[in-house]
Amino acid sequence: MTIWFSRKLATFLGIVTPVLETVRRWHTWQDLPSALFDDYILGGLLLYGAWRVGRDASTGQKFLAAAWGFALGMVYSSFFWQLEQMRIGTIDPAPISSGWVAGIKGTGFVLVIIGFITSLTRVRGDE
Questions:
Q1: How many structural domains are present in the chain?
Q2: What is the pLDDT along the chain (127 residues), one digit of tens a residue?
Q3: Which residues constitute the domain of residue 47?
Q4: Residue 38 placed within a domain
């Protein structure tokens, strides 16, 4: 896998993550607005990194890697917080079960790790 895979994954997650979080918190975002808007920041950073790599892979790589690093910190925290909330019986505000939310976050966690690792691959001169 190359940085181009990382770029495509960043574009996908940069769009999907804020959309899913908006659906999840649509009726409860006023209770804790930062819980909604941090995913917009995450999406924006991933899209910016992907855009920079599209312009010039060698100079854009650091922006994409930084965006993935931010995303990794967020998804790590979010996933393990979700598991703790399930353990104590807190119901998630999403229109689906807390188990499904945890599964989606776990999948996202794996994808972000893959995106981060592939963003660190050496960029060849012809890319």
A1: 1
A2: 789 999 999 999 999 999 998 888 777 767 777 777 889 999 999 999 999 999 999 999 999 999 999 999 999 999 999 999 999 998 887 888 889 999 999 999 999 999 999 999 887 754 4
A3: 3-119
A4: yes
| Residue 63, number of CB atoms within 10 A of its CB | 18
Residue 17 — φ and ψ, nearest 5°? -60, -50
89 — phi, psi (to 5°)?
90, 15
